[in-house]
Amino acid sequence: MPINEDPEYFKTRRVMFLPLDGTPVRMVNYPSQAEIDLRKLVFEDAHKKRMHKRNDQRTREEIQVIDWTRIEQFIGYGRLDAPIVFVGMEEGLADVAALHSDLLRRSQFEQTMDVKQAHQGIADGESLFTDSPRRQPTWRVMADLMLHFDGRKFSSPKERSSARRAYRAKRLGRKDGDSMLTELLPYPHRNTGSWLYGERFSGREAYTAAILPRRIKLLDDALSGHSRKAIICYGRGNWPDYKRLFSEVLNWRTIDRFECAEWRGAKVTLTDHFVSKYFNTDAELDQLSAVALRD
C-alpha cells in the first residue's frame, strides 16, 4: 500500500498498489469528489424513480378493485330505448384464466354500453368486431332477426350469411342501433356447470337466490321505461325465470316451439337457446323472426 496519510493523496486519478516484494500488480482509478457527488445524485435519482414506479403500481392495483355493485347493476349492450331486446340468462366467458381482468373491465361499465366499446379489454373481445369476426353463434341468430326487422331481402343464402356476419360485427348491440342485449344474471361464465365466484357466494343456488330478484326489478324498470316492439328471451330451461320478469302476463300461448305473450305493448317470445339445433337453417331463422316480429 502507498505510505501516505494525506487524504488528498487517495483522491488522485491513479494509484499503484505494490506487494511486499515491490512488484507492480495493478493500477486503480479513484474517482474525484465531483465524480462521487455526481454518481450519488444519479443513484438517488434512479432510486426515487424506482420507488415512484413501485408506488404508482401499488396505487393502480388499489384502484383496480372489482366493483361488484357496478357489475350487478349493469343492464346491457346497445341502446336503452331500443325497439328490440334480447334477454339471455347469463353472459359467456371466453377465457377463464382472464376472469379477473374481465371483471376489472366490467367494473368500469356504465349501465348500458356500446358492445364494441365494452369488449375492448375483455379477453378475445375485439376479434368479434373485425371485418372477419370470430364465430359467435348466439349473436348470429340475433343478427338474422334484426335483418328481418330492417326488412332486408337477399338473393342467395351466401349473401344473407355475409350480411348476417357484417351486422353482428358492426350493428348489433351498438349505442346508435335498434337492439339491446341483456341478461337475467350478471356474472359471466363458460357454462352453467361451473362456479367461479366462491368469494361472493357459496354456489350458483345461493347466487341466484340473492341476485335474481334484484335483477328482475332492475330489468323490469329498464324494459318498461321505453316503448318496445319485441322482447325475445332465449334458453328453454330458463323460461320460468323469464316469466317472472313478465309477472303481469296471465296468459301465455304456444306458437310452434315458442311461448308468446303481450306485455306493455311489446311482443314477448320465449324460445330455445340460440346455440341449439333449432336455428341452424335459414328456414328455422325465418320461423323465429315470423313469431318474434308478429303483427
SSE diagram, text form:
Elements lengths: L13 E4 L8 E4 L3 H31 L4 H5 L3 E3 L5 E5 L10 H8 L5 E2 L1 H4 L18 H13 L7 H14 L8 E5 L20 H21 L5 E5 L4 H7 L7 E3 L2 E6 L2 E6 L10 H11 L3
Parallel strand pairs: 3-5, 4-6, 4-7, 7-10
Antiparallel strand pairs: 1-2, 3-6, 8-9, 9-10
Helix pairs in contact: 5-6, 5-9
Structural notes for this entry:
This protein has 295 residues and is of the alpha/beta class. It has 2 domains: 7-63; 68-292, Uracil-DNA Glycosylase, subunit E (3-Layer(aba) Sandwich). Helix content is 39%, strand content 15%. The strands form 2 sheets. Strands 5-3-6-4-7-10-9-8 form an 8-stranded mixed β-sheet. Strand 1 and strand 2 form a beta hairpin. Helix 5 packs across helix 6 and helix 5 crosses helix 9 (282-292). The protein starts with 13 loop residues before the first strand and ends with a helix.
At a glance:
The chain has helices spanning 33-63, 68-72, 99-106, 115-118, 137-149, 157-170, 204-224, 239-245, 282-292; strands at 14-17, 26-29, 76-78, 84-88, 112-113, 179-183, 230-234, 253-255, 258-263, 266-271. With 295 residues, it is α/β, with parallel strands linked by helices.
